[in-house]
Every structure is written in C-alpha cells, then in structure tokens.
Amino acid sequence: MLGKLLKHEFRATARTMLPMFGVVLVLSLLANLSFARIADTDSGALDILFGLFIVAFFLGLFTMGVMSLVVMIQRFYKNVLGDEGYLTLTLPVNVHEILWSKLIVSFVWFLATGLIAIAAVFVAVFTLTYSELGEMFRNMPSFGEMLRLFFEKTDITPWQLTGAVAQFAAMTILSSLTACLHFYAAMALGHSVSNNKVLLSVVFFIAISFFFSFVSALLGNITGGLAMTVTVEAGSSVMKALQELSLGSMIYTLIEGVILYLLTTYCLKYRLNLN
Questions:
Q1: Does 264 score more than 80 pLDDT?
Q2: Could you tell me if 123 and 21 are in contact, meaning their C-beta atoms sit under 8 angstroms apart?
Q3: 173-177, long-range: CB within 8 Å, 24+ apart, which pairs?
Q4: Residues 218-221: contacts with CB within 8 Å, 24+ apart?
Q5: 8 Å CB contact between 31 and 121
Q6: Least buried of 114, 173, 177, 194, by fewest C-beta within 10 Å?
Q7: Main-chain phi, psi angles of 84, to 5 degrees
Q8: Is 275 exposed, middle or buried (0-12, 13-18, 19+ CB in 10 A)?
Q9: Dist CA 192 CA 81 (whole Å)
Q10: Within 13 Å of residue 267, how many CA atoms lie on the same side as its CB?
C-alpha cells in the first residue's frame, strides 16, 4: 500500500515541481545568453533585458527552493490535517505508511531541487565552446589518476574517503527527513487542539526548534571540546577527528528524528482533532 501512496504523492506534487524545474532551466539558458552578451552590447534596452533575465534566474532559484518547502508543508496539511484528512485516515493503511509516503516524496523533491539548482547554475555560467570543452576533457587526467594524486598529496586513505562520503550521504538523508518532521510534529501538535490550530502549529514549531537548538549547542560544546582533546592527546589525524564529530552529529540527528517521528505518529493516532 505504501507504493500506491507514493505514486499518488508523486503525481500530486509533480504538477507543481516539474514545471518549476523547467522554468528554472529555461531561465538558466537565458541567463547564460545574458552573461555572454551583456558586455558586448551597446544597446541600453538590451542591457536592461539581459539584466532582467539574470535577476529572473536568481529569483527562480530562490522560488524553486521555497516551493519545495511549501509543497512539503502543504501536502501534509491538506492531505492529513485538512478536509482530505477524513478520507486519508480512513484508508486501509496505517499512520506510519502515510507519514513515510510524505517523508520519502519530500526528500526526493529536496534532492531533485538541489541537483537542478546545481545544474542550472552550471548552465548559467558555462561559457566554453564545444572545442574548448573537448580540449579541457582531453587534457584532464582520468578519475583514477586524480584519486591516486589525491591520496598521495594527503594522509587520507581510500577507506576514510569512502567513510566520509557514506557519512555525508547518510547525514543528508537524516537532516532532510528530520527537517520535514520538525514541521510535521509541530502541525500535528497544533491540530490536536480545538481552536487556533495554525497559530499553535507555528508556536509549537518555534518551541521545538528552540529546544533542539539549545540541546544541540549544549552537546556540541561538551562533545566538541572533548573530542578535540582526545584527538590531540592521541595524535589522531584531523580527518579522523572530523569523522568522529560527524558521526556524533549524525547520531544526534537520528535521535532527534526518532523523537519527532514518535511525537508525530502519536498525535496523528490519538490526539488528532479535525473538527
């Protein structure tokens, strides 16, 4: 049943996100044209037009990031806490499947938004001709050769690099899911009361953010200083120290996400007030 929920979620959210991606990519092409021609034109009207294209491109990037967040919030509010909630919560699925469908789809759109943003910026600033690009790739060492040179010039081992990449990927996933759960938990708490649900959702979001920020800062001051002390005394490498700090941060984010997940599911199961 989770697969059907995911299919429905992707279909509903793609109506907003895919056109937004297309607009941003088109604006990146116009920005590329503007960057290339704005210095060569003597026409004031064209200067203004090219300038507007560049401004529109950066506004499009900002809007795309905001929309990925808005879609994540709007789908949960409308589909679970709004009028559709009566239908959604009567489906032959449990709360966990409903929540995970929202989390997975939100993460996919966050990831897609980041990749499209990187691609759009690359397209906007790309000025090499095809011949220059071909020459650059011909003169570029192979990926294996670049890795060999990297390991020779640093004290990082292949296993350390692999671990760092894996930790970065895991931290990206955990951070994205936990960020979604911050909003979901606050909205679920706000909609567990009868009145001022939206206002209370905002209040709960601020309170949750403040609490976890305080705990994170407190733990960071304690564990950060302790980890650096142990590293210096043991003569460990900076890379190892950073990996240990990253692992601690990942564990904390996981605990935070679990707490918010349990809070959200509890409110949806036992405290939800749709009246």
A1: yes
A2: no
A3: 173/107, 174/250, 174/253, 174/254, 174/257, 175/253, 176/106, 176/107, 176/110, 176/111, 177/103, 177/107, 177/257
A4: 219/252
A5: no
A6: 194
A7: -70, -15
A8: exposed
A9: 10
A10: 23
